[in-house]
Amino acid sequence: MSSAASTAHTSQSTSRKDPAWEHALPLTGKEARNEVGCKYCKKYYKGGITRFKRHLAGIKGDSVSCTQVPDDVKEKIQAMVDAFGEKKNAKLEAQIKFRQQVNVNGNSDEDCVEMEVVGEVEVQGDSTAAASTLVPKKPKSKGPLDSYCMHPEQARAKEKHLQTTMNQHFKVKEREKAHQYIADWFYQVAIPHNTVLLDSFDLMLEAIGQFGPGLKKPSPYMLGTPLLNKHINLVQEFLQVQKEQWSSTGCSIMIDAWTDRRGRSLMNLVAHCSRGVYFLDAIDASLEVHNAKYIYSLVSSCIDEIGPEKVVQVVTDNASNNMSASKLLRVKYPHIFWTSCAAHCIDLMLEDIGKISMVHNMIQDGKSITNLLYRHVRLLAIMRQFTNGDLVRASTTRFATSYLNLRSLYDKRNELKQLFASKDWAESSWSKQKAGQNAHDLVMNNKFWSQMLEVINYFEPLAYVLRRVDGDVPAMGYIYGDLLNAKKEIAARLNENKKKYGPIWKIIDERWGNKLKTALHKSGYFLNPSFFYNNRQEMEEEVMMEAVIECATRMYPEDAIVQDNIVSQLSAYTEATGSFGTAMALRQRNSPTISPANWWSAHGTSAKELRKMAIRILSLTCSSSACERNWSAFERVHSKKRTRLGQRKLNALVFVMFNKRLQWKYSQKDRDPLVPKFVDDEPPNEWIVDDPATPEEEEDNNSEGESSKTKESQVMEDEEEVFDSSESEREEEGNIPYADESSDHERVLVSPPAVRSWIQQHQLRLRPPDGADVEEAVYRDWSGLPLDLVALVMRVLDIPNLLRAGCVCTSWYAAYSVVRCVRIPITDAAPCLLYSRAANDADTATLHSPSGGVDFKVRVPAPMFRSRYVIGSGHGWVVAADEASNLHAFNPLTGAQLDLPPVTGLYHVETSSDDQGRLLYNLYDDELGPDTPSVYTPRELRMLLYYHVHLSCSPSAGAECVILLEHRPVSEHSYAALAMRDGLRSRRTRPHTEARTLTRPLQVPVEHAHDVIDPCIESYTYEMQLHKVDIDDRKLVEVRSSDLRGHALFLGFNSAIFLSTKDFPSLRPNCAYLMDDNSEMIILNMYGCRDVGIWNFENKDP
């Protein structure tokens, strides 16, 4: 067996979880990997664990029965096989019932498909005994021929199992082709891949299948109006059940404020009851001050809409403005409680625990291991081979993520030890690097794992509580008792060592405080029969009863009779008399399937008033997580691309999207509340990405074992020419570093070595050059790559490779779009310089990265790059005038190009010609008069007319991109949207352009009424101040050098960019890079020498 095979088998053996493996012989390495040995008959059999279980159970068919297996083992294995068959049948039954939700044939309710057991269809891998299968009965006949028809499922089930298997085999290729079409749509519009897990996706496929070929797609109008209205009605019908529940159990209002990527301040309003979550509204509050009065007005109006008698509590985070708003609300609605989000409080507990030195160091050590493994493509593949899966897990909060990943590392510690002790690791270059050696030492150190377990014991009991309160089920009856149990569990896990658990208890108590010890929380603990009757000796019963009486007083402020009855009925509950003392009530106190509210509903008939109040309290949530997990719904719908939609339709889309997602989450009873289910719910995971790997760190996976740095990845320094500047001018400016002209090396746009090696290994080739006589079939499509692998490839590409992805292979750009949707960080985000070189072709430009000193050659679409007159750039696009002075926006990396409205679209430009018919332009100027134009050639016009161009966003965004042109006379502004083709719109305004300079006096002209020649004032820059905008207080705050935190600030003409000097070591930290953007210098001498300066904020010195 080869080394690779041995490694794979070792990993496989360590991950066996089926109990039947206990009866198998360990493989010695001589047998094939798909063989299993029996420890009783000492023979080896082809196949996997399923066939081996048939061998032990004596099931005839595709395996030989074992004659030496003990009877008890045989019975045990037979029971396992039967249980698996039953589980599979139950799954099949659930699938059939689920498919019955779709009915596109128009059958009425009485014609709905029923279920019956037909035939005997073998379930592979379960039992030799044929398993009865549930299939739909045929529908009631609707015509004479219907009596001769059979439902497809019924017909298939009645056929022989061999024929069914053959049909499925022949359908494999058809299914793969259908999947390819589905995937093509996903990739084209960058839809997150895990959305296929939604039930609505399955129902859609079922409906299309039932309709058959030729289904006409819905039009945009149908999706935007009639179908949307139908969905609104369906959602409202579903939610009507919840509204009816509000009258009996009450509801909670949850409010959460957040800021989207466009800087808008938004607020979500959600109602929660025991039946689920109801989205009320999402409000754009960007223009409002989020003080107590404003929040109170929002909540108050929401309560009035629902009905004050139906609302029990309001749940928010612990912000001071929310707490102040609660005081205002209590004046108007004294019966409504305002509580803090329990999930937020517990997350703060986890955060405080994470600040303990030992815990913090452990988290950093764990990250160093995962970052190493996930930064390298080949090392990641080896890790997955050993662990049979992934190490890193994402969670809804940062410190819950830390717990999940520490637990994952600890559970896989044996597999990790085998990895770092393997031959693959020893022979790799990572084992010789410092980061690899540190990871190896940690993994092989048993003390490290014992300390990790101790840290896990700090987190895990609280994570259990977080799972409870972060779910969508009512948790008011559990939070208080769960926190008490968590403290006990932590102490028990730490062997009652007070020195260890004491600091953790202190953190819990400080955060617990009064936030989660309100009358509602205490009453929920007291009224939960599981806690009360089991912990009565430890319970502070008098304190808890005072809380119940306070709740009765507040919830029924004007009904003294109800208050008195509740107090008198408490004794029946505490003494377990009447309906509380029946055998069933005693038995169901601790039932995991009966909630405390349902227990009171069934067994609280002896205390009607107390029963009603208990149900309302125990049906409450204690977290606003349902509100927070759906931030993206408003942002996704209310995007600039949909500004043409009416506000009413936008709100309707948010209403349907939000509530549909809430319904789906509520239906997933077995989901982990700590793990996000949607891509856009998932926050950035710092356990995967920390410091991006450089190309030099990637290992070259070639057979000759050469150095990891290849000729293609060498940094080349060619002598370059900036536009038409002479060689002496370049030497004086010193803008571009260059080397000997005789160098014959040239930077090639290729992936780093490890990625290139992976491409070769998987036979994924680049598209052939244009005109090459190569069969297209040999160039495989990359559309089948899994998203995580695409993300890894994207992370190691530099900017030109990343943005040229659309030119590399047929589906690369779609994959890139998907990766950008999940916000995978790009390793190199520094700005680049674009210029021409005399030695290159006229249509070739050079792209220079100042941060890395790397040059790339790119081919620019027609017209030729050297014939263009560059006006400005932004967002990776360049705007330039061609030989006729018409403007074009082009992307030098992707080759995309857009034509802007012609120059004659400007109000003061007209075309003319000379005597020989050559093109001329008439430029009208107010100073010369309306009838006296200046005549220019196209070259003269573009030199004199255009000053600068600003882009509002990337032109790839489509019609929402606006291009602002600053032009003559004297900085007038005109603008054009990409959707405009009838000319430029002009605003005859003349704004002052701010000038920045550090290296020479700034000449500022000053008007004087008496002198013929205007005097000038010399202005010098002695000091700079950097300010940031405080959105909350609406003021400017000066930024100190300590605020930059090792970053460099680029102050450009269009934007400001922060770059980490950790990622770009050639930059100076805590400094600002500036360029002289004097408007007059731009106008009069666009290609003149420009001043570049660096301001040091620490020394306050240029």
Describe, in plain words, how this protein is organized in 3D.
With 1102 residues, the protein is of the alpha+beta class. Among the domains are: 3-69, no CATH class; 226-341 and 624-681, 2-Layer Sandwich (Nucleotidyltransferase, domain 5), CATH 3.30.420; 365-618, no CATH class; 1002-1096, no CATH class. Helix content is 41%, strand content 16%. The protein contains 39 helices and 32 strands. The strands form ten sheets. A five-stranded mixed sheet has the order 8-7-6-9-10. Helix 11 links the parallel strand 9 (311-316) and strand 10 (337-340). Helix 9 packs across helix 31, helix 12 packs antiparallel against helix 21 and helix 24 (541-555) runs antiparallel to helix 25. The chain is globular and about 110 Å long. The chain starts with a helix and ends in a 6-residue tail after the last strand.
Keyword list:
Nucleotidyltransferase, domain 5, disordered N terminus, alpha+beta, single chain, 16% strand, RNaseH-like_sf, protein dimerization activity, five-stranded mixed sheet, DNA binding, 39 helices, 1102 residues, globular
Q: How many β-strand stretches?
A: 32
| Inertia-based shape | globular
Strand order of the largest sheet: 8-7-6-9-10
Largest sheet: 5 strands, mixed
Provide the β-strand percentage band: 15-25%
- CA radius of gyration: 36 Å
Class based on secondary structure composition and strand pairing: alpha+beta
Low-confidence stretches: 1-15, 107-166, 638-645, 676-684, 690-783, 803-814, 818-829, 986-1019, 1081-1090
Give the overall pLDDT as a whole number.
70
Supply the number of helical segments. Answer: 39
First-to-last CA distance: 66 Å
Helix content: 40-55%
Region (Disordered): 1-22, 673-746
Subcellular location: Nucleus
Protein name: BED-type domain-containing protein
Keywords: DNA-binding, Metal-binding, Nucleus, Zinc, Zinc-finger
